Amino acid sequence: MEIYLDANATTPVLDAARSAALSAMAEDFGNPSSIHSTGLKARALIDRVRSQASRLLGAGNGRLLFLSGATEGIQTAVLSALHALRARRAAGDTTAELLLYGATEHKAVPEALKHWNELLGLGLQVVAIPVGLDGRHDLIWLKAHAPRAGLVCTMAANNETGVVSDLDGIEAALAGSTCFWLVDGVQALGKLPLRLAERRIDYAPFSGHKLYAPKGIGLLYVREGAPFTPLMAGGGQEGALRSGTENMSGIAALGAVLEALEDGKSFRDHATLLRFRDQLAAALQQAFPGLVFNAPLDQCLPTTLNFSVPGLASRLLLDLFDAAELRVSGGSACSAAKAQPSFVLQAMGLPDEQTASAVRMSFGPAAEEAFIVEACERIRVCGETLRENCLAPAGNQALAGDGITRFLVDGECGWLLADAASRRCIVIDPPAALADRLAQQLRCQGYPLVAVLQTGPQSEGAEALRAAVPELLAEETGEAWALGRQTLRRLTLGEGRCAYLLDQRVAFAGRATAAELGNAVLPATLLAPAIDTDNRIASTPSSALARTAGPAPSLDPAALQALLREHPEALVIDVREPFEQRLGQAPTLETAVRIEAMPISRLLNALPAWLAMPAEQPIVFFCRSGNRSQVAAQLLQRLGHERAYSLAGGLALWPQRAAVVDPALYV
Ligand code: PLP
After folding, report:
1. Separation of CA 554 and ligand 1 centre (Å)
2. What's the confidence (pLDDT) of residue 372?
3. Checking phi first, is residue 225 left (phi over 0); if not, alpha (psi -120 to 50) or beta?
4. What Å distances lie between residue 370 and 6, 356, 377, CA to CA?
5. Active site amino acids
6. CA 213 – ligand 1 centroid, Å
7. Model's pTM, two decimal places?
C-alpha cells in the first residue's frame, strides 16, 4: 500500500468530492448561465459553494471568484494591482517604485510580477523580501521598504517548509503604505483560520487540489473596493470578472470539501494534526540519528515537516522512501525534476550541506491515525535498511562484500574488488568525489585494503581514500595481487598509464582502448573503463568492433507476461540497488520464473554467465522507472545477446505488485 506523504504537492480527491463532481457531470450538468431549470440548478450550486467559501474564509463583503487554480488567481491579482498602479502613476502619483515578494514565495508570484510588470510597461523594481533562518519575513526590512512599495506579496504558509507567516506583523509593517497586499493562501486552506476581511489583504488565491478537490479549480478572494481587472474577457461569467463557462464539476467537488471542513467530522482538529506530526518527527529522529528540522516546528503548519540528514543526499533519501512506497519530495513539485537545491532553504540561509539533503514530508488534514502509524513503521524500516546496506552516515552494520562493485559519479568510475573468502579488497580509480562513500563501504566490510590503484597519473581520489581509511590500509607493492582464487595484474601502457587484468576475465582499462590492450586481452574480456559518461558500463574487444546498438526493446506488463508464457526459461533480473530490493515490491508474474537480484552497480559480476546463455533465451531487466533496466538491456545487446529487454516504465507502472519482496522469489 502506498503511503502518500506529499500533500503539499497535491492531494487525492475526497470521496464526497468525487461523488459531487460525478453528479455535476452526469445529472446536474447544466450551464449556470442557462435560464431553464437545469441551468438554475447549476447556478444554485455555484451560489451555495461561494457562500460556504465566504463563511469559511471570513471573506465578509469581499468577492470570491472561481477560477482554474492559484496560478490563475495570482495572475489575476497581480494584473489587477499593476493595472491600478499604472492608473495611479498616470494621475501623477509616483510613490510606487517597488514590487515586493517574500524570498520563499511560490515561483508563480515572482514570475507573475516580472511578467505583468514588463507587459504593462511599468518598469518597477521587483525585489525579494529577505527571510530569516526561521523562514519568516524580515519585518524591519519590510517596514523600511513598504512606503515605496506598490504591491507586496507574502504567502500565508510556505509550501516547502510549512513556515506560517506572521500576517499581523506584516500588516503592521505595511501601516501607512498605499501598497496593495496579496496573500497566497494555498497551503493555509483547511489548516489555519484566515479571517480575510479582518485584515487589509486585497487579494488571496487558493487552490482546490491542495485540499482534496480536483486539479483545475481554485478561488480568488478580492477585498471589497480593491481594484480588479479581468484576466479573461468573454461571455461575462462570474459577473464579467472571469469569463468562461464555469468548471461545475470542480466547483461541486470544492463545495463537498468545504462542507466537510464545516461539518467538523472529516478533518482532524489542530491538536490531532500536531500529535500526528510529532509522531512522524519522533519516528524520523529515531530512524535517522543526526536528523535536523529545517524550520522551527512551532512556527510551521502542523502538516508539514522539512528535514535533512547531514551526510545523506536528498536523492538517496527520496529513493529510499520511494522504495518503501512512502511518497515524499525534495521540495516543491514544480522543481522536483530539476535536482537543484531548494531556493527556499537557500533564502533562509541554511548551509549547503543541509539544503543538499532536504526532504519534505506533508500530509493532509484528513489523515487517519492508522495511516500515521504505518508511515512511522515504514520510516523505522527505512532507517534500518540504510544501516544494513552501509548507507547511513553512522551506525552501519557489517557487510560481507564480494565481487566487483562500480562507483560512478559524473561519468567517473571507480571499482571496488572484494573477496569474501580471503577477506581482501582492492580499489581501482576511486573518484575523489566518492572517497567518503567508498571509505564508508570499506569500513562496513572491514577487509584489509591491499591496493589502491590508478590507471592514469591522477591520484587525487586515491590519496583521499587512503587518508580516509588509514586503519584498513595494508598495501602490497608489486605488479600482481591475489584476490581469492583470482589474480589482478598490472599491464603497463606508457605515459604513466596502465590497466589491470583480473585473470583475463575483466580488464580495468582506464582510458585505454581495446587496441592498446592488444594481446593481453581476449575477444570476450570485459573492459571496465575509468570514464563512462554514457553509462555504458563495459565493453569487450569484440563488441567494440560491432555496430552500435540502439535502445533495447521495452516490454509493457502484458508483453512481459506473454513473453514469459512463451519462454518460461527466461531470466528476470531486478537491477535496483540492494536497499531498494529489500524495501520494495516485486512484480507479480503469472508464470513461475525466477527473479535474480543484480544491482546495476554490480552487473559486471553476472555478465560472463549471461553472455554464455543460449542466444534464444530471453533476459528481461526491471527497475523502478525503466531507466536502469534500459541501460542493462542495451549493454547485453551491445555485448552480443540480442534477446535482452527492459520493462517499460519499471515497477512504477506495474499493475500489481507483491506486498513486499519475498526473498524466496529471488535467487
Ligand atoms: N502557491 C503555493 C504556495 C503553492 O503551493 C502552489 C502549488 O504548488 C501554487 C501557488 C500554485 O497552485 P496551482 O497548482 O493551483 O496553480
Report:
1. 36
2. 98
3. left
4. 17, 32, 11
5. 334
6. 14
7. 0.90
